[in-house]
Amino acid sequence: MTVERTASPLAAQQPERGFLPVSVLPARGAPGGSGFPARQRPAARRTPALPLLLVDATAALTAAPALPHPLLTAPLLLAVLWLNALAALYRQAAVPAVLDELPALCARITVTWCALAALVAALSPAHAPSARTLLTGCALQTAASCAGRGLVHWRRRRMLVRNPAAALVVGPAATAQRVAAAFLRRPGCGLRPVGVLADDTAGGAGLPVLSTDEEVQRAVVQNGVRAVLLVGLVGEHGALVRELAESGCALWEIDAEMPSYDPPLSPAYEQADRTAYDLSGTATGKGPAPHDGPGSMALAHTGPPAYEPSTSHLFYPRTPRERIAGFPCRRLEVGRRPMSPAKRALDVLVSGALLLLAAPVLLACALVLRISEGPGVVFRQERIGEYGLPFTLLKFRTHRPADEHEAATRWSVAGERDMSRFCRFLRRTSLDELPQLWNVFRGDMSLVGPRPERPYFVAGFSRTYPGYAARHRMRTGITGLAQIQGLRGDTSIEDRARFDNAYIDDWSLWQDICILLRTAAALVRPTGS
């Protein structure tokens, strides 16, 4: 088996507009930071989980007399605390409310009591608790837990009103002023904007616009800033925002966009839903349908757009989306999302087993390609993976580009006319992807994750489609949530980015298993990739 390699060169300059394809904030220690002295760093105010833990423990002890045996008190207590922790019921909510937690509390208390009852019935049927005992215990524990949590949350909300956290709003001046005004009209949200950090100053009347690091340092020290609200791109102030986050400021991403009510056939809708753009922003598709994109992307310039990989990122923690002052928001943290050991174990076990089982198929495909297509049956191409780091992706060669530039910049799809019948069969059945199992086994990729793309297109898509750069918060994969939704080949890039980010935000091991099962089922009705 012979191997050929096609890799796209990375340009040395940075993109002229937009933001870096993957990096949201500059790396630690990058030039241009504010350099806060240690004594001037703002102290973040954090509400510990201890009061809520004590409340739930007290509620479990309150309902313990209803248990058939005192030895069951410890299992009841530990099980409830563990289930509540898994449900993130001890996290710091922006504006806590016991009614929002009531369904989750009731469900976990009920599950715990039913599990204990089943255990007692299995070990000692004579001491099995009655239905009345179960109802009494669940009601007592739920009432005590809700009452205690309600008191804790009430005190927390009063503290937010009396002593709101000073915040800086980062983004375009006009949008930042609008968001700041909305927060100031809602003092109960617990955040009080004191300034706007923007590259432009044309934001109209409102809070002072801070444009230099010295002004930000002065505002932080004088107002005791404890939160940063991101309503757009951080621009050249990325290093300063990173320092604020690392010094203890809470970082919130605020979705300040107003919903669109354009009818489905309006020009605005058609313009937004086109699937293929050249890298200068000109639409090349013929219509608004998600599958009407062309087989190749028109190029507005001769060289590929710049792509500069970085290991510095913001990632979204696995917590539910909240609302503050009516705006959808979520808490961000600086650093890399640690990969779950269970996900990596699943990758190694499944990819290793499939490599052994599919070895005859791999050998047969390589042999037929060698005889029919000539040397170079394995195609090696540079793709962008987790945190924007490049890696070499392996595939069976089904198409021979004219040169390296075409291989790096051509948007190819299944069903091209110059493919042989066997190559089209490999594309249609996704057998050309089998060598990527070795990428998964090595750790370059995962079984499930956003599909990796070439640097040329990553740079262009990141400047054109909001949210595309955030896909690289997790290791790329062979299949993903976007693929099982039919977003393969020449389909909407915007839709892919939305599904990929939804997968990352809601990740769980069970979701990976479901995606793998649905991918296996989809192979029965292949549509190409």
TrEMBL record:
Pfam family, one: Bac_transf
Domain Bacterial sugar transferase: 343-524
Residue ranges the record marks as coiled coil: none
Transmembrane segments: none
Annotated family: Belongs to the bacterial sugar transferase family.
Protein name, UniProt field: Exopolysaccharide biosynthesis polyprenyl glycosylphosphotransferase
